[in-house]
Amino acid sequence: MYIGIDLGGMSIKAGLVNEAYKIVATKTMPTGAERHGDEIAKDMAKLALELAEENGYKMQDIKAVGVGCPGACNSKTGICAFSANINFKDTHICEIITKELGVPAYLGNDANVAAFGEYKVINEEMESMLFVTLGTGVGGGIILNGKIYEGFNGVGAEIGHIQVDKNSENKCGCGRYGCWETEASVSALIRETKKAIEANPDCAMAKSVEGDLSRVNGRTSFDAAKAGDAVAQKIVDAFIKAVGEGVCSMINIFQPEVLLIGGAISKEGDYLLDPIRKLAETDTYKHNGVHTRIAAAQLGNDAGIIGAALLGE
Amino acid sequence: MYIGIDLGGMSIKAGLVNEAYKIVATKTMPTGAERHGDEIAKDMAKLALELAEENGYKMQDIKAVGVGCPGACNSKTGICAFSANINFKDTHICEIITKELGVPAYLGNDANVAAFGEYKVINEEMESMLFVTLGTGVGGGIILNGKIYEGFNGVGAEIGHIQVDKNSENKCGCGRYGCWETEASVSALIRETKKAIEANPDCAMAKSVEGDLSRVNGRTSFDAAKAGDAVAQKIVDAFIKAVGEGVCSMINIFQPEVLLIGGAISKEGDYLLDPIRKLAETDTYKHNGVHTRIAAAQLGNDAGIIGAALLGE
Prior knowledge:
Two copies of one chain form a homodimer. Chain A has 313 residues and is of the alpha/beta class. Chain A is built from ten helices and 13 strands. Helices cover 38% and strands 21% of the residues of chain A.
């Protein structure tokens, strides 16, 4: 049995994960992100202990505790150098957890760890896998030869922060303009949906939210497009193209065996993926039909816990 | 002693490379790129043999023969699946060379192999290195943990083919628009230099080529800018920015320990590199000052031969 911890700015989620890579129990507590980082690390250990005991396990039954954490995480040292939303400053997360619990502890960046979870559940021999997650931003993870690629300083795999539109007026959270994230995230989709509703107040999509922009979400344009609204279709097409163009760039760099697309929007399945696959047919290097398999991620919100747990496998 | 072969569309260049990673002798012959691929492979073996014998070596003295070849090369199988300019179709290059010479043979894509040569001569422990070469196109190579990264199908590391300007009117050789290659290659620099001369026929840069666009090359704008021409300075600044923006995207993905910039233009040294380093300070993720070292490549045209030779080290 393993314990995986998915640490976020709001909550610490811990899960017991078995040898079949399934979550068998979970427990959650508030992060208290403004506290000293060491306190947060100690609370992760405490939560893991409680989760184990409440489910009839002793710490000796737990092979490892893994943590997926937003920010710059060095898996070799177990140190989180910094996190935008949590008060970590060179916090020795693994050392603290191991000291508290007496079990091996592992650390990775949250998106990387989620990628690792998706990779593990596919459970196939593969040389390389890319994970692209579409949410507030465009995140990702790179798995090469079964290992997370994190760069020499632990802040690699920020694949959402390639510039795809150098003349864009859309400023990215990272400070640049026209990152893939500013064009292909769900935030970008919502931004463009709102613009289209403002410009076309009589379209079916606008009516679907009764003209109330605060009701727009990532599904608004997809739902309206499927119901036949041409304005919505244009937004959806542009969004899928923006996702696909970045996917093609990633394939040209990595030629990964598998490229997974995750985030809630990946539930659109082939409606989202087929146009991306078609674009990849024409817009990437390949030969002899040997090219990247593009598929939807499977684990949803569980990827973080499962990936973190299996860091210690 | 090793033999490295730098195969191009026009010529086959072979070099004897010693244990200190130096080329001690070379020999060249025409490629005859339209011939059957097997014949070209046999000629590479023949050239290697002649080179060895003319310099007093027997094949037993040669530890390995390596080939850097344009196109889709699978280093594991030693097969070149295809090459745009050479008549290879699933050509078993390594098998043919080993059969002819009785020594181990190795194969890699030409840009990847050049990257490997640059990596080897740095001769430092490093986790990761990216090589970006600015020429007719933007090529590159990725070295991770001392090994060439080529993707699962041998066509990876096409880092010049990330889209950086999705609305660009510049069509790339790969079929896409606005690839990094269309914005930051020497071809792009020459294109923009010509445009500027046409638009400003009285500028010093225009006078430097006597208004003759056929005399424009990759140095024209750099030379005129250094001599104080404002028109040229604008072209140079935009070019360096285009290089730098792509470099920042690559750093955000890979966070490599070292990023080398090669191609003839890298002789501009810090004049080219300092603005890129400055951009990387603001436009990439990093922490605690631990960030990628950006430097000029060292080997120039020798990188291909040296890298190929050392594939078998």
